[in-house]
């Protein structure tokens, strides 16, 4: 079976997801979707730290932990469904590319809930960590890249200039229809970079990018 990778660009409560393979040395988007990471897609659950800020500390701990667990389970379910679909098409999902924020490590929960800026950061991290854990549970090797470094990392891996990398990402969406926003483009690049991180794929990815 041919190897494939999945990439994520995460938001509060959901993530853009793209699955990529190399076909005849060319990157191909096999699937793209927007996966919900909360069952109830409302502010209460999409912004769990904002919600917890209004609770007592013990209640906030329990609530946020519950959202985190739910997000990981939903991510696992989405990944396994994608894996099954790709298997039917002759692809084996092996790697995941996860885009990270560039912030510093977070303090303990009590301090997070006392800072509005930290609350925003923590919500992104909660859903990223859920996707990372779900990917590992599904047997995927995870490549993490800070989003601000994505284009440079891809440029280095594919021997291209960053503007050309972004143009290639836009071209990969032709024929797929909307949405093909920066979310889908960056998720695609994260997946492609994860494939390039595999030694047996590095040469093919570079060849495809220069073609």
Question: How would you sum up this structure, described in words?
Answer:
By secondary structure, the protein is of the alpha/beta class. The protein has a single domain, classed as Ribonuclease H-like superfamily/Ribonuclease H (Nucleotidyltransferase, domain 5, 2-Layer Sandwich). A five-stranded mixed beta sheet has the order 3-2-1-4-5. Strand 1 and strand 2 form a beta hairpin. The C terminus is likely disordered.
Please outline the helices and strands.
Layout: E1 2-11, E2 14-23, E3 26-36, H1 43-46, H2 48-53, H3 57-88, E4 91-100, H4 109-112, H5 116-137, E5 141-146, H6 150-158, H7 162-172, H8 182-196, H9 199-210
Parallel strand pairs: 1-4, 4-5
Antiparallel strand pairs: 1-2, 2-3
Helix pairs in contact: 3-5, 6-7, 6-8, 7-8
What share of the residues does DSSP label as strand, in percent?
15-25%
Order of helices and strands: EEEHHHEHHEHHHH
Termini distance? 24 Å
Biggest sheet features: 5 strands, mixed
Outline of the structure:
The protein is an alpha/beta fold and 211 residues long. It has helices at residues 43-46, 48-53, 57-88, 109-112, 116-137, 150-158, 162-172, 182-196, 199-210; strands at residues 2-11, 14-23, 26-36, 91-100, 141-146.
Using brief descriptors, characterize the structure shown.
single chain, 211 residues, Nucleotidyltransferase, domain 5, 5 strands
């Amino acid at each position: 079976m041919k190897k494939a990778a999945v990439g994520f660009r995460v938001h509060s409560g959901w993530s853009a997801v793209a699955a990529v393979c190399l076909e005849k040395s060319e990157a191909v988007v096999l699937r793209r979707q927007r996966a919900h990471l909360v069952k109830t897609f409302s502010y209460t659950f999409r912004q769990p730290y904002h919600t917890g800020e209004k609770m007592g500390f013990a209640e906030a701990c329990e609530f946020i932990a519950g959202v985190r667990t739910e997000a990981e389970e939903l991510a696992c379910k989405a990944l396994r469904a994608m894996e099954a679909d790709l298997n039917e098409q002759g692809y084996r999902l092996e790697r995941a590319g996860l885009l990270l924020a560039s912030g510093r490590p977070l303090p303990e929960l009590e301090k997070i809930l006392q800072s509005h800026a930290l609350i925003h950061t923590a919500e992104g991290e909660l859903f990223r960590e859920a996707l990372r854990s779900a990917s590992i549970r599904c047997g995927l090797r995870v490549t993490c890249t800070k989003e601000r470094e994505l284009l440079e990392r891809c440029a280095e891996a594919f021997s291209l200039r960053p503007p050309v990398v972004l143009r290639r990402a836009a071209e990969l969406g032709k024929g797929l229809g909307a949405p093909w926003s920066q979310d889908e483009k960056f998720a695609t690049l994260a997946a492609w970079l994860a494939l390039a991180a595999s030694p047996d794929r590095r040469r093919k990815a570079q060849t495809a990018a220069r073609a």
